[in-house]
Design goal:
Layout lengths: L2 E7 L5 E7 L3 H10 L4 E6 L4 H24 L4 H16 L4 H9 L5 H15 L4 H5 L8 H13 L2 H50 L6 H27 L2 H12 L4 H22 L4 H10 L4 H8 L1 H6 L4 H6 L6 H13 L2 H56 L1
Antiparallel strand pairs: 1-2, 1-3
Helix pairs in contact: 2-9, 3-4, 3-8, 4-5, 7-8, 8-9, 8-11, 8-17, 10-13, 11-12, 11-17, 12-13, 16-17
C-alpha cells in the first residue's frame, strides 16, 4: 500500500511531520481527520496503487500476459464455478461480502487464484467495487463475470449474480465436455496409429541390427510429442491475440460442413444463455447483446452479432435486428420475437438456448460415426503406406544380397 507523508501543526504551533499508509491521498486525508490531525500538506512518498499496478503490468510484458499466464496459470471453469457457488451460498446466508471473500480465500487453490482473491478482498475493504477489482485479472475473470457482478452491485442483488455466474460456468463446462467427448475417439485412434508407426519402426531397427537406437527413438518421439503440443497450444494462444487471424480461423470453422454446424449451434446457445442472464440482471438490451456476443466463443459470429448493437440503441426490436445479422435460424428468431411480445424475453432465451444445445447434441451424435470412419480410413492409409514402404525396402535389401 502507498505511503503518504503529512505535515501538521500541534497545539503550540510547531510543525509536525509523519507518515501513514493509505490506498490513495483522499483516504489518507480522511484517516488523519478521524484522528483529529489537521494537516497542511499530504503527499505520497512512493508510487500510488495505480502507478504500482501499471509498473507491474509493464514488467509482466507481452509474452507473460499473453503466453505464459493463459497456458500455464489458467484456472479451470470448474474451479471458478465452485468459487462463485461458495460466494453465493455465503452471501445468501447473510455473511457480508468482505467476510465471504476472506473465508474463501484463506485456503484457496491454485495460488494464482488465492492471490487474486486476497487482492480483491483488500480493494473491497478500502471501498472499491468488487467488479472493478476483478477487472484487474482478465485471464481469470472475463468481461461477462465482471459485468454481472457490476449489475449486482447496482441492483443490490449480488448473491443472485454470483449464482448466475456459477450456473453459466457450469453450462460452459458442459458444452466443452460435449465437444471434447465428440472428438475424443478420433484423437484416440490417431494416437494409436502413431504408436503403431513407432512400434513398426522399432521392429525394423531390431531386424536391421540397430537395437541400440531404440532408447534414442523412444525419447525423441516423446520429446517431439510434448514439444509439438506446447508449440500448438502456445501458437494458438498467441494467435488468439491477433483479431484478424482469429476471425478468419473461426469463420473457417463455422463454415465446415458437419463440425461447423455443431460449433455454430453451440456458439448461439452460449449467446442466448448469456443474453437471458444479462437481461434478467437488468442490463440495457444493447449492452447485454454486446456482452453476450463476446461470450459466444466464436470471433466471426461475435463480429456479426455485434453489428446489431448500434441498431438496438436506435430503438429497433431485437428479433428484427438479429435477423439482419444473418446468423440465426428462423425458428430461433421466431422464439425471440415471441419473447418480445409477451415480455418474457429472459425465459424464452433460456428455451432457445436449450433448443440450440439439443440440436447441437443431435448433430454431435450424428457426427461421431462419420469422424470415426474418416479418421480410421486416413490412419489405415497412412499405416499401410508406412508398412509397405518399410517391407519393400527390407525386401529390396534381401534381393541385393
Amino acid at each position: 500500500m502507498p505511503v503518504f507523508e503529512f505535515t501538521s501543526r500541534d497545539h503550540e504551533g510547531r510543525t509536525v511531520k509523519g507518515t501513514l499508509e493509505a490506498p490513495d491521498r483522499t483516504a489518507a486525508v480522511l484517516e488523519l481527520r478521524d484522528r483529529g490531525i489537521l494537516t497542511t500538506d499530504v503527499h505520497p512518498v512512493g508510487p500510488t496503487a495505480a502507478e504500482q499496478a501499471a509498473a507491474e503490468e509493464r514488467r509482466a510484458g507481452f509474452f507473460r500476459r499473453h503466453f505464459i499466464d493463459p497456458i500455464f496459470f489458467r484456472v479451470s471453469y470448474r474451479r471458478l464455478a465452485w468459487l462463485f457457488h461458495e460466494l453465493a451460498s455465503l452471501t445468501h446466508s447473510g455473511v457480508s461480502l468482505l467476510e465471504a471473500l476472506d473465508l474463501i480465500s484463506r485456503d484457496l487453490r491454485p495460488p494464482r487464484l488465492h492471490q487474486a482473491l486476497r487482492d480483491i478482498h483488500g480493494q473491497v475493504l478500502h471501498g472499491r467495487p468488487m467488479s472493478e477489482a476483478m477487472g484487474k485479472y482478465p485471464t481469470l475473470f472475463n468481461e461477462l463475470m465482471v459485468a454481472l457482478v457490476a449489475a449486482g452491485e447496482r441492483s443490490g442483488h449480488i448473491p443472485e449474480m454470483f449464482t448466475a455466474i456459477a450456473e453459466w460456468l457450469e453450462y460452459e463446462v458442459s458444452i466443452r465436455t460435449k465437444m471434447l467427448t465428440t472428438t475424443l475417439y478420433p484423437k484416440f485412434v490417431a494416437v494409436v496409429a502413431l504408436s503403431l508407426v513407432v512400434v513398426i519402426a522399432n521392429v525394423n531397427l531390431i531386424q536391421e541390427g540397430k537395437a541400440a537406437l531404440l532408447p534414442l527413438l523412444c525419447v525423441g518421439t516423446a520429446a517431439a510429442l510434448i514439444g509439438g503440443w506446447l508449440l500448438y497450444k502456445g501458437g494458438e494462444r498467441l494467435l488468439e491475440q491477433v483479431a484478424s487471424w482469429r476471425r478468419s480461423w473461426d469463420s473457417i470453422k463455422a463454415s465446415m460442413p458437419v463440425i461447423g454446424n455443431m460449433m455454430r449451434k453451440f456458439a448461439l446457445a452460449r449467446f442466448c444463455t448469456v443474453l437471458g442472464t444479462m437481461y434478467r440482471a437488468g442490463l440495457l438490451l444493447p449492452t447485454a447483446v454486446g456482452i453476450a456476443a463476446d461470450a459466444c466463443g466464436n470471433a466471426y459470429l461475435r463480429d456479426r452479432i455485434r453489428t446489431a448493437v448500434p441498431v438496438l440503441y436506435e430503438g429497433n426490436g431485437l428479433a428484427e435486428t438479429l435477423t439482419q445479422t444473418g446468423v440465426f435460424p428462423a425458428t430461433v428468431l421466431h422464439m425471440i420475437a415471441t419473447g418480445e411480445q409477451t415480455g418474457d424475453l429472459d425465459t424464452l432465451m433460456g428455451n432457445v438456448a436449450r433448443h440450440m444445445t439439443e440440436e447441437a447434441d443431435a448433430t454431435a451424435q450424428r457426427m461421431v460415426p462419420v469422424l470415426f470412419i474418416v479418421t480410421f480410413l486416413v490412419v489405415a492409409i497412412f499405416v499401410a503406406y508406412y508398412v509397405i514402404s518399410s517391407w519393400v525396402g527390407h525386401y529390396t535389401q534381401l534381393l541385393e544380397f
